[in-house]
Amino acid sequence: MAKQIRAQCHADIGSDHGKLLVALLHAGRIQSAIAIENKLYPFENSRRALIGLNGEARYADGLHGLDVGEAESLSICGMGGASMVGILKAIPQRVPHQVVLQPNCDEELVRRWGFDNGFHLVDEQIAWSHRPYVVLTYRSASGLDPAYAKQDRDAAFMFGPINLARRDQPFIERLIEERKYLLTLNRLSDTTHHRLRLIELVLAKQT
């Protein structure tokens, strides 16, 4: 996550303990930091973590804690995709030029947000932990996002256009394992059946 961020001022929504902002400040990747939290205990954690550093914690709900043009970049980590999209859509004029997002689930909703709202996907990484987490880096731009130009649109929203173009081995192996699991199920919902169809579409291009 930290490798994707470099800015004069960076804001982090849902900052929790403020560790990301502290790391960015110590590494010199940002010059000032704004931690935004809508829960009192994490807000106090962030406030204490930023004491003595060029940063501040704000007790606010999402983008209500950030003025237009105040930060050049923004991060949101560890939430579901639907919650992230809700925050980003609430006050769109306050969303900075660069956005780095790490959804815990429903990343396709985040990709659709970027595609529909003038943010191009410039980097996409998978962080391998006890489960894979995707880190999406966006920059505001006009026109159709070129990352999607040569990809099946549904598959690209589901699995990521850069992941599909890169097709590295861990990503493909993850899809193979998921396909095996889904084929063992006796009954699939319409949503799961659609996902299986897209996995098979992607894997078919390997042969």
Secondary-structure map with pairings?
Layout: E1 7-13, H1 19-27, E2 30-37, H2 40-49, E3 55-59, E4 73-80, H3 81-90, E5 98-105, H4 107-116, E6 119-128, E7 132-140, H5 153-159, H6 161-166, H7 169-184, H8 190-204
Parallel strand pairs: 1-2, 1-4, 2-3, 4-5
Antiparallel strand pairs: 5-7, 6-7
Helix pairs in contact: 3-4, 4-5, 7-8
Can you walk through the features of this model?
The chain has helices at residues 19-27, 40-49, 81-90, 107-116, 153-159, 161-166, 169-184, 190-204; strands at 7-13, 30-37, 55-59, 73-80, 98-105, 119-128, 132-140. With 207 residues, it is an alpha/beta fold. It has a domain at 2-144: Rossmann fold (3-Layer(aba) Sandwich). A seven-stranded mixed β-sheet has the order 3-2-1-4-5-7-6, sandwiched between helices. α2 (40-49) links the parallel β2 and β3 (55-59). α4 (107-116) crosses α5. It is elongated, with a radius of gyration of 18 Å.
User: Tally of extended strands?
Assistant: 7
The proportion of residues forming helix, as a percent range, comes to: 40-55%
Q: Identify the CATH homologous superfamily of the domain at 2-144.
A: Vaccinia Virus protein VP39
The termini sit apart by 33 Å
Percent range for β-strand residues: 25-35%
Structural class: alpha/beta
Order of SSEs, N→C?
A: EHEHEEHEHEEHHHH
Low-confidence runs of at least 5 consecutive residues = none
Supply the number of helical segments: 8
